[in-house]
Amino acid sequence: MLARQDVLSTIRMVREENLDVRTVTLGVNLNTCANPDPDQLARAVYDRIIDKAGRLVRYCEEVSDKYGLPIVNKRIAVSPVSLLLEGHTIETAVKVCQALDAAAEKVRIDLLGGFSALVQKGVTPGERTLIDSLPQALKLTRRVCASFNVGTTKAGINVDAVLMIARQIIATAEATRDTRGFGCAKIVVFANMPEDNPFMAGAVLGPGEPECVINVGVSGPGVVKRAVDRLVRNDPEATLDEIAEEIKHTAFRVTRTGELIGREVADRLDIPFGVVDLSLAPTPRVGDSVGEIYQSMGISRIGAPGTTAAVMLLNDAVKKGGSFASSAVGGLSGAFIPVMEDHALSQAVTDGTLTLEKLEAMTAVCSVGLDMILLPGDTSPETVAGIILDEAAIGITGRKTTGVRVIPVPGAVKGEYVDFGGLFGAGTVTAPASPEGSAEFVRRGGHVPAPIHGMMN
Amino acid sequence: MHKSKSSDFRCFITSVLVPDRVGLLCDVTKAVFALEGNIGSIRQNVVDGHFNLVFNSEHPASVSPETLRSLLSGSLEAEAFVTVLDCPAGRKFSAPAGSRFVIMTRGPDKPGTIFAISSFMVEHNINIQEWMVEKEEVGKVVYIAQVIVPAAADFRLIQNSFRDEMAKLGLTALLCHENIFRATNEIVPIKSLIGQ
Fold first, then answer.
1. Chain A, chain B: beta-carbon pairs less than 8 Å apart
2. Bridge partners (DSSP) listed for residue B39
3. For chain A, which ranges sit under pLDDT 70?
4. Residues with Cβ < 8 Å from A81, sequence gap 6 or more?
5. What global pTM score does this model have?
6. For residue range B83-118, what is the model confidence (pLDDT) as tens digits?
């Protein structure tokens, strides 16, 4: 028999606190599609997505109704497309990207990840082709997301790849000038990239994953924010450890919900269930913000001293609660700080309390990195590369994932307001305190060697 | 409940309703024990100061339902209502098989609401197993019920229909599978909840 309070508290989470499942992401391995003929390759990719994902949305809707719980996004992550491009041209890469885009539209998916390459130790011709295709591929498609792994704690950082990708980020911004460089919102550059991340733009089905798998991203930050608010309302003197405890309990319940939904969808698709990603992924909506959680904790001006500690507390409590809830925790699992996608963070950047450098500090203790940050249009490739290198350095030294998703907005200057609309949000163009001065360092190329603690054997 | 040969024993289902006081359960079980009874399932609650108990018990074949009823009535206050039914082992009940769902309605506390909800359930062959009430702000009430939705039923259709019907009465309503509540409150592997 269910207890009355258990029923009421769960209903309250669903109806009043926005409990949901943020994403159910179907991983699909595309390696069987390899073909020397570009048209046959693109056709095989399209057919494979339709075959494996054709029922995903319907099953998600059925499970969502059964439990009375919204599944906000249904998405697909494919194996790195670069693996299909050896011996092919940029034109083929664009054609494959368009096939992915068309298939995603056909199966009613808003975003598909995996136009990707893992280049932490070197770049193959196929990977180079994919990198060079980015401006055209992302200009001509709407749903496809690209991601790269440029460093690991074991391998160090591939600086040549970083600069190569940075140049294509600038080129993609220019190619999508009519949408204010929106193409770059679909490119993320990782260090220690997870192979089972269900969240965009970095979702990819890693080489060690099953042929098909369901990974789930848990509910957004609104539930945690309201739990903290309730605690503080009932006890204005609540200590930080009491807040951490409340977040842990909430993360436990949120994670259990995610696993329940994911396992049932996987069961219906007759494929394995993979992981629950505990990450709190905000949207631009008020009440669905990670920044608001920091404010509820007592950081009235995000970016003020103490903000990094608040990020750490939140990230750690989410992990502890989630790890106890499920034995299948994976992906990024922490708290995202995507500036444009989080109205409180975005406002803090606009207000000038949150700087790029403070965000960088926060990324040392959050689950990802510099995410959805608008840069001036005249930002150089070397500066973008320097930003990526700094983040990758934090990642490989901290043995954690870090990522960079920046949008150099063509023609825009620092302080300008840019609105992408929808889930991608809006924000103010910001810039490093010292935008120039690292070109010589970046252009040296080569590798940043692996840190000593990368030698784990 | 210990196992025994059915020919040697009889099973009863007993209901007791009496104004609440300390020691009622002790008095009831003392009577059952005096007749060498062994209690299996038992459910007790208190509604508006009235103790309500339902249990089944297994006794030697020489004990009749009337014997147990008399002993219980004699052990309790005069205003106690005691009913004892014979419950042969293996007896089948007609409640439909299906999945366990939870319904919830929230809205003004007014006569006829429970009748409307239960009528809807009857129309759709849904068996109500548990019923809970939660008073909210003045004049508002939340009804929660655990129900069995027949396996063959289209729960999405029922879900939408329930929401629409309750909306006509000024109630918000939901119907969802019980596993969402178990998942968020119990510490058991999720796999076990969905039968994997």
1. 77
2. B57
3. none
4. A30, A93, A96, A97, A100, A114, A115, A116, A117, A130
5. 0.90
6. 999 987 666 666 678 999 999 999 998 889 999 999
Where in the sequence is the domain holding A116, given as residue range(s)? 4-19+26-191
- How many folded domains does chain B comprise? 2
Q: Are residues B68 and B120 in the same domain?
A: no
What is the dihedral sign for C-alpha B136, B106, A247, A308?
negative
Chain A neighbors of B190, CB-CB under 8 A: 256, 259-260, 263, 326
Give a yes or no: residue B1 inside a domain: no
A4 min Cα distance to partner chain B (Å): 7
Give the closest of A4, A10, A263 to B190, CB-based. A263
Residue A396 in any domain: the answer is yes
**B155 touching chain A per CB within 8 A:** yes
Side-chain-side CA neighbours of residue A272 (13 Å) = 11
Interface test with B, best of A1, A6, A7 (most B CBs within 10 A): A7
Average pLDDT, chain B: 90
d(CA A74, CA A224): 22
ipTM of the complex in this document: 0.86
pLDDT of residue A18: 81
**Which structural domain range is residue B123 located in?**
98-193
pLDDT at position A367, please?
Answer: 79
Note whether A253 contacts B159, CB cutoff 8 Å: no
Nearest one of A433, A436, A386, A421 to A406, comparing CA atoms: A386
Do A112 and A260 share a domain, yes or no?
no
A contacts of B142 (beta carbons < 8 Å):
8
Please write the tens of the pLDDT for every residue from B110-156.
Answer: 889 999 999 999 999 999 998 988 887 778 899 999 999 998 888 88
Domain closes at, from B86, B121, B139: B86
Do residues A229 and A284 share a domain?
yes
CA distance A108 to chain B (A): 21
Q: Do A69 and B176 touch (CB under 8 A)?
A: yes
Q: For residues B75 and B146, state if they share a domain.
A: no
Q: Which two tokens stand for residue A447?
A: 């590798």
Contact A260 B134 (CB under 8 A): no
Domain count, chain A: 2
